[in-house]
């Protein structure tokens, strides 16, 4: 299940004292090759954290040997000192692994504006490098958790072009500030397939576009979102046509579903499925508008099938539709039919954790599903007392 | 203080039984002239309620004699029957007042998707017409309340071009689904100034743009938002240059501030002031993005000066700025200076109800202030059990 399940990877997770809780907070994932291909997507937030600014440059050439990750501080809006901390950490990893700093990507997560202790993270890097092991994937996944209640890992296998199998795995963290611009959260994916960087890049962008990019838990885009995919080639297997994309999308979708399922304070996981859209962009825009509607999200928390709030959210978009033709179903009950009250809304059962909202725009053949969560007392409680 | 304070207006507020609570729910405001000039702005939500669709047409010629308002049902997504109910209500008002139905504007507020009882509203119209009085303004303001805890009224006087004074007054309702597209909520404004419809229209658009349009309590745009301004000319006073705009903007700003102060479940009223913007649009976009950030709003509820969430919200906009030059102040403490930690955030006192967030983009001379509220347990509680 872990990022070290594919051949050619080692990992570690250690405690460097960055978190007041004393929980593990530094992770290292190393690609031992023979390939060192990498692709990555980053937050489109224009206020990017220092590790994002660093990793964007370091991954640009399609090569990386390692990813260093820390929780306990986002290293964002920490001034020039903050960038130097990221740089020094990458140099230390390079020194310990015998590669250049530019082959080390860095990810940070935690509170924005909190200076990261350079000595503590340095000690953590040394401990992690010493602890690197092919059994270290689970420890790494634990060390990147912030408000996550469970670590998130996924694994899938794919077919090679000449037979044989390759493996692809991933780990993810993220429970709040969960509304991707391009990618979201921290995600490290590994594969032992023989794939070059440009192929990795194409596959990664395609997969994140329909998985992490369709996740909008709380409408708040992070400054640190990063998804990294590394290929070691250690299986010697070159993927069959479509096999990389399929495997990658499956692992990303599984991780994204886990993120929704563990979102801060949520009682419900809500799939907003938009059908009959004139374009995929229209479907995503409508899905996202419903997913960001606090009133609808609070209604779901209260198990109240208040479908008028879905339609009010649809109406704020520029998508093609005629209000008098809209259908809305909640968990299979068509509560609004052609823009008028439909079946009895009291038949809707909102007790299960998973809620399905279906909006039919009747304007074309395109569809998209955006995942979100309900707005709960626990969300307000958790987020009214995070930094203090 | 009431809409009947200007000369030439009568109003009434009665109980028609549309609300389960038995509280007043039908209001009528009548312009007795000599002028019957009107201007109105409506929600830009594309899913417009039937009374909005009706009033858009009825106000297009710049003439109206009366506004009928009901709480206890938004008459939105109620099918063709719903539009007929609006039409029949306007016809009945016209019959009772001796004018055409097209001179009667209609506003509804309450739950979306709930059919409006035509008999009950008809009886309410008859009762309201019989109760019309120059002392009826306060009763009308009470009858349009939904989750509002207080009725909202404001009054100002202005100078005439040849001396003399005119009066301008308004009433408003709205406590949730409070994020205007063009206008917001239900607002009726009256003046006894001598003003033609086109001047009214210009003044109303200018005033709402910097008042109601800068209000974003919960990011949820209503299907029923309407702001109507009627002039009777009964004072015989033609406003001095600028006097109408000034008076109107003052009354709108006072009503908008009252709406923020009574927003559902709010503990804090938050003014997000953006300065140093390259354009007014940039300033509004940044202010609105901060105003819609659930994480920041929850932090304010928890009295937590978590300024990183302000910057993360700024970063999601397309406004001109350099992240390394941004300043953020919370209640006068500059917690972020030039994109790095500034003064001690623990000095920020978030105990008062009013919170001032100041964001300096350092990109130009433009400014704007967007008002919002915090995200509280009471908001979640109230909105998780509205329709049931």
TrEMBL record, chains A, B:
Pfam families named among the record's database cross-references: ArgJ
UniProt keyword Amino-acid biosynthesis present: yes
Binding locations of substrate: 146, 173, 184, 264, 383, 388
Keywords carried by this UniProt record: Acyltransferase, Amino-acid biosynthesis, Arginine biosynthesis, Autocatalytic cleavage, Cytoplasm, Multifunctional enzyme, Transferase
UniProt site positions, description: Cleavage: 183-184
E.C. number: 2.3.1.35, 2.3.1.1
InterPro entries from the UniProt entry: Arg_biosynth_ArgJ (IPR002813), ArgJ-like_dom_sf (IPR016117), ArgJ_beta_C (IPR042195)
Family to which the UniProt record says this protein belongs: Belongs to the ArgJ family.
Subunit architecture: Heterotetramer of two alpha and two beta chains.
The protein's name in its UniProt record: Arginine biosynthesis bifunctional protein ArgJ
Organism expressing this protein natively: Kineococcus gynurae
